[in-house]
Amino acid sequence: MSNSVMDKRPVTDAPQHSTLAHARLPRWAPAGIAVGSVALGCGAGLAAGWHSKVQWGLISAILFVLATYAITARVEGRRQARDRVATSLVWVCFILAIIPLVSLAWTTVVRGAKTLDGAFLGHSMAGLANTDEGGGVYHAIIGTLEQVGIATLISAPIGLLTAIYLVEYGRGKLAKAVTFFVDVMTGIPSIVAGLFILSTWVLTFDMGFSGFAGALALSILMMPVVVRSTEEMLKLVPNELREASLALGVPKWRTILKVVLPTAVGGITTGVMLAVARIAGETAPVLLLVFGNAFINNDPFNGAQSSLPLYVFEQYRIGTDASFDRAWAAALVLIAFVMILNLVARGIARWKAPKTGR
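The structure corresponding to this sequence follows.
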């Protein structure tokens, strides 16, 4: 019976091919489609008489997505075409987001490098009219360092302890209320924080305008960012580490101090630096509370001060060629300040991060 079944099986000499094999585009196809789309987009822009490079770029992006789908669907099928279109949209959005950033950085470097030198960094605007050439940004650098430093000293411990409470101890209505108010504070405009400190610290308590008053407003803006970033980093610490420490009889506070915080120190430091980067460029609270000063004031608790964002605002408002050059140079100093802070944060995070090797 088995022989009869075997005899009824179809016999063919044709080779058996896998049904999974199908045509595929070469590796250089996305790059080729991108080049062709850019060429067509620029040609369409020139033919239509459009002088804006933004319009050319948008046309090129649309053509790139459409051409990717059409060509891929023709060669590989519609399912693979949808996958490639999704990838193309990700790349297009990335490029659209990175172009303004690169353009801003390039413009700031080119225009700011003309004035940025040792004399600009080592002198203030004392004795110079706003329309005169020369002057420097030394007094604004001192003000920014002191104000941001004081705001960090106020906000970082409070934000860290609040995040520890929410993650390790927070239960019930109080924790929900704290979370709600942290979320609300995250969206507070900077001018509102400045007005709050102005109405309380300056007008009610009659403490006067100073760098410390500006630091108080900046700390209000910085605190919710520190709380949120630290909270998320603490949640990423595996519960097994906490349980292992508690199983050895280690108190909870010591477990947090010796196990949880060292494990999350990299993310916590990065979050603090992100908060510092946010407040370093704030102008409205400084304009209301620090008030601006062309002279060097090393005392943040007495008298008006200046800061880098306020200096940029003041110089750009004057409207002369010399003031424009000083504004761009100060903006370059501010960007360099934020970049240095981020590099320091990464170094601290690597230094304090727990060692994974034996």
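Confidence is low (pLDDT under 50) at residues 11-19.
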